[in-house]
Specification:
Elements (H helix, E strand, L loop, with lengths): L7 E10 L2 E11 L4 E6 L5 H8 L7 E6 L2 E3 L4 H6 L2 E4 L11 H6 L10 H14 L15 H14 L4 E5 L7 H16 L3 E5 L3 H7 L2 E6 L2 E7 L5 H9 L17 E11 L5 E11 L2 E6 L6 H9 L6 E6 L2 E2 L5 H6 L2 E4 L13 H5 L10 E2 L2 E2 L1 H14 L16 H13 L5 E5 L7 H16 L3 E5 L3 H7 L2 E6 L2 E7 L5 H8 L12
Parallel strand pairs: 3-8, 3-9, 6-7, 7-8, 13-20, 13-21, 16-19, 19-20
Antiparallel strand pairs: 1-2, 1-4, 4-5, 9-10, 11-12, 11-14, 14-15, 17-18, 21-22
């Protein structure tokens, strides 16, 4: 790193939303040519701070200096002119357009550009930073990792020297993560500056130079990465000791509770999404489904839970054929479901208590004929709030006011209180901080211990290996193999996730 003025210095930044202080007098400095990690719990103010730097929000108070000069950033266009680029967690690409068309959209040149010149510059940047991409490919044809490269190239094409990355590895395979981290190091070697928002502490310690930790909108610490470790960083984030390795006691699987045979189904576009998928899950077992998002996982879970029709195959729950059963019939037979899109499973404007009984409102003692006993409702909800440690001022508050971690606890409370059987859960800790992740993992392992069969879909391989007994890998709608969940199989799982290898069915565990 050079002795130049700081690439970014945000001084005394304060931002409020409806009386809630998201950033409280934050000082944030990033040196030229460094990878600076920004850590914090959900709701700590990380994304708000970066949205201010990128011009999406205006601060209520504070100053911003770029390369030593005080600036005012009214919009992303101002940020881009100052050499700031941002790659959001949810990519902002037009799926039907080509790489070239996406890169040029919104650039300062407007509609006046020569496609060949753009293509040449993209190819030069791609080669320079090892961001291999086909300029004429359409976005929908690209993997998540390739789409992320397009977002980075788009920022570099616009002249970004300061690049903000928000949870950049959340949808990547292990090999794509490794390649991205190498690319970031290469970029800083050439004088670029990286701000890296993530919950993955191993990535922070692997590539960053310094770390700023936010808690409740304030800066808790700024540390040199070489002088800290994951345990200390987690402690600074959540204010307590966090267990990174939970004990997963070896258990003898019980009877088969869920089985699918030769499932085939179409996606929303009428294309084949599932191809002859078969597996089973037993009581006291967690079967993890690994794979890059978009390879049939969503369609698989929707078929099992009755939300999507299948075009072939069968589903058994507890030995009963439920292939043609309705969603309610599957629920009544012990099937619980926590989707990846949490708010789709909740009614945001309804109270926490009302959301907690969405599956049990027809049963006594909550149901009194055609009416709901409000006293029983509040008693039931308060019990679940205590049991699952849901942080809320009260059960009558709208569920939309909860943080991401508490929304996930509420969903688990509702689904797991509805009875025993099979739990289908997708991306259980996506976007959660280390403290919330630890809580959710403990809940799932407890349910495994108590005899529940759990089908777990996650794009976090470490999570899959921590929680699962076996791992089934999906690629292009197919099961590429089922292996034991162990570190020894990481490379094999990664190759299957990329579609580079397949294990014969007779060798599945």
């Amino acid at each position: 790193m050079s002795n130049e003025p700081s690439a970014v210095f945000m001084k005394g930044i304060t931002k409020r939303f409806s009386g809630v202080v998201a950033n409280d007098g934050v000082d944030f400095e990033v040196k030229t040519g460094e990878i600076h990690a920004l850590l914090g719990e959900n709701g700590a103010g990380k994304t708000t701070l970066m949205n201010i730097l990128y011009g999406i929000y205006r601060p209520d108070a504070g100053e911003i200096f770029i390369n030593g000069k005080k600036v005012t950033i009214h919009s992303p266009r101002d940020a881009i002119r100052l050499g700031i680029g941002m790659v959001h967690q949810q990519f902002r690409l037009v799926q039907t357009h080509t790489v070239v068309e996406n890169v040029i959209l919104g650039s300062a040149n407007g509609f006046r550009f020569r496609e060949e010149e753009v293509r040449k510059k993209i190819e030069e940047l791609a080669e320079r930073y090892s961001l291999a991409i086909k300029p004429d490919a359409r976005i929908w044809q690209l993997s998540a990792g390739e789409q992320q490269r397009v977002e980075i190239l788009k920022a570099l094409y616009r002249g970004a020297k300061i690049l903000i990355l928000d949870e950049p590895t959340s949808m990547l395979t292990p090999m794509e993560i490794e390649q991205l981290l190498k690319t970031l190091q290469r970029m800083t070697e050439e004088g670029n500056t990286i701000i890296f928002i993530t919950h993955k502490l191993d990535e922070v310690t692997a590539v960053s130079h310094r770390v700023t930790i936010l808690r409740q909108g304030k800066v808790m610490a700024v540390v040199e990465t070489k002088q800290t470790d994951e345990r200390q960083l987690a402690n600074l984030m959540v204010g307590r000791e966090v267990l990174f390795r939970l004990e997963k006691e070896p258990l003898e699987p019980q009877e088969e509770l869920l089985r699918v045979e030769n499932l085939t189904a179409l996606n929303d576009k009428g294309l084949v999404a599932l191809r002859d998928v078969s597996f089973s899950v037993h009581g006291r077992e967690i079967l993890g489904i690994a794979g890059v998002a978009g390879n049939g996982q969503r369609e698989l879970l929707e078929v099992i839970t009755g939300l999507r029709p299948l075009t072939g195959g069968k589903v058994w729950l507890g030995g009963k054929d439920i292939t043609k059963a309705s969603v309610r019939e599957r629920v009544d037979q012990g099937l619980s479901y926590v989707p990846g899109e949490r708010m789709t499973a909740l009614v945001p404007n309804m109270s926490i208590a009302e959301n907690l009984i969405l599956k049990g409102y027809r049963k006594e003692p909550i149901a009194r004929g055609f009416f709901i006993d409000k006293r029983q409702l509040l008693q039931f909800a308060s019990q679940l709030i205590r049991e699952y440690e849901i942080a809320t001022p009260g059960p009558d508050k709208p569920v939309k006011l909860l943080s991401g971690g508490n929304i996930q606890r509420a969903l688990l409370a509702r689904e797991l209180s509805s009875g025993e059987g099979v739990l289908v859960i997708a991306y259980p800790t996506s976007g959660l901080d280390v403290g919330a992740i630890e809580t959710v993992w403990k809940i799932l392992l407890t349910q495994r211990m108590e005899g529940r069969a759990i089908l777990l879909v996650s794009d976090d391989l470490e999570e899959i290996l921590t929680l699962s007994d076996r791992v089934a890998v999906m690629y292009n709608g197919e099961i590429m193999g089922i292996v034991k969940a162990s570190q020894e199989n990481v490379e094999k799982i990664g190759l299957m996730m990329a579609g580079a290898t397949r294990i014969p069915e007779e060798q599945w565990v």
